[in-house]
Amino acid sequence: MPWSDWLPGWPLSHKAQLVTAASASGVLVASGIFSYQALRRTRNVDRLKSSIPDLDEEHKSNRLTEYGGASSLSADPDADSQYHASLATRARRGSYSESLILEQLARNRVFLTPQGLETLRSAFVVVVGCGGVGSHACAALARSGVSAIRLVDFDQVTLSSLNRHAVATLADVGTPKVHCLRQRLEQVVPWCRFDCRNEVFSVEAAGRLLGEMEEVGREGKGRKVDWVIDAIDNIDSKVALLKYCADNGIKVISSMGAGCKSDPTRVLVGDISASIEDPLSRATRRRLRAQGVVTGIPCIFSTEKPGPGKAELLPLPDEEFDKGDVGELGVLPEFRIRILPVLGTMPAVFGLAAANHVILELTGYPHEYLASKARDKMYEGIQAQIQGSEERVARARRFDAVGLKVPVTLTDVGYLVEEVYYGRSAISGLTTRLALARWRRPPEDYLDMSVEGQKRVKLEIRELVCMTKEEVAKHEKEVLKGSKTPEDLYDKNVLDTVQRRMEEEKQYAKWR
Q1: So which residues are the signal peptide here (predicted)?
Q2: In terms of Cα–Cα distance, which of 314, 458, 481 is closest to 389?
């Protein structure tokens, strides 16, 4: 049937009328709904706009600091922060489900065994230094189950901290690092107790900062520290911490310099005496050795060597020196006064390695690292060689050498060979058959016989120079017992090297 035949009669169809009415009512309802939604959106936008204060109006938000962060020393106590703080408080009181904790720590429990995890959960660890290294170490410890952590750091989060800090956000800029860590990690492990100490570590504060924890969850009160992680980059505080731990039998692992390093495969864990290619490690080791601490401190260090195109610590501009004492630029004595280039990933590697060591040690998990340099036999031989050389020089001057005492200890020998001369002869650079000898002919009155029955040579350790045994034999014959001077025997490079090392030791002598 053609369209022209039935189209004119279509409006008269009852079925068609029903379809038309239904369509019209649907369009009307949809139009009403869309109109209402549009009106509601308009009202919501107007309400939001009206809630934004003008720049000259007073409102409840905090002003920003010069760093771009909140002016309060702690995070803004908004509803979310209050919720997590309340949850953490209840969890530490025991209201957090034990089954939930074990589920969160399930992977560690399988790896370390239930007994190992229980030991870890009852441990008390102190992290000193909460920057790039310390923050990653602390976060790893907390996530692994350690239930009591003391955080020690005097500094605040800055914008430049955000390239390497484990948990800091832009909102934390300007806040103390210890509180930043606590507030962020409480959202992950609310049952962990964080004891925040926003202060500088020093010799005077060592007993208090490494003292007992007043409360350690299920273990009760008065728990002694199990491990300390040293993540300090101030040499004075670092040495003070390590010396205190060594003297008081406190287990500690020390992170050395991550600055200017980029190769994670070169990061090692070993005894401090085995650390190489690390200026911070060398300075720390030298100061500790001067105070009698030679081995027994595990440390994290990188053996990566500097090279062309690699980052390095740039010298201060001349205009800074023209202003006066550059030491005044540091926030603390011996604190770095130049910006140290740091690749954000490397402090994390150091911090995680430190936390890993503590976890393995606490749980008794088997592990082996670089051992200390067992060179005591060599030091004993060098000490005997010095004694023999001094006796021969005394006899050449017609002195009775029987009972002659030389004031050089094994610690002195190790310090000179390893820290002052880096295990090399100052004459040839050789590293084998090493010995020590006076650099210049001693004066006529170099024997001290002020105590009856005792003969002692006057000798300061910086007067001794590292050589090979063959070089010592020649030096002793021509300089110490002969008439020549070092200037007659050695070239300018050797003379400058020895002079530089002696001047360095003169500066370090105050730490002995």
Answers
A1: none
A2: 481
Kindly report the three-state secondary structure assignment for every residue of 247-300: HHCCCEEEECCCCCCCCHHHEEEEEHHHCCCCHHHHHHHHHHHHCCCCCCCEEE
| 36 SS3 class | helix
Domain 79-363 bears CATH identifier 3.40.50.720: yes
Give me 437's structure tokens.
Answer: 């000898």
Alpha helices in 291-401 (DSSP H): 318-322, 345-363, 376-396
C-alpha span between 418 and 424 (Å, rounded): 8
CA distance 489 to 479: 9
pLDDT tens string 84-131: 666 666 666 666 778 888 999 999 999 999 999 999 999 999 999 999
Q: How far apart are CA 334 and CA 100, in angstroms?
A: 46
Question: How many Cα atoms sit within 13 Å of 12 on the Cβ side?
Answer: 4
3-class DSSP state for residue 457?
strand
Question: Quick one: which H or E segment has residue 486?
Answer: helix 486-489
Which tokens sit at 454? Answer: 């005792």
Cα–Cα distances in Å, from 374 out to 249, 281, 297, 405, 419? 21, 18, 14, 26, 15
In whole numbers, what is the pLDDT of the chain averaged over residues? 81
Give tens-digit pLDDT for 239-274.
999 999 999 999 999 999 888 888 898 888 988 888
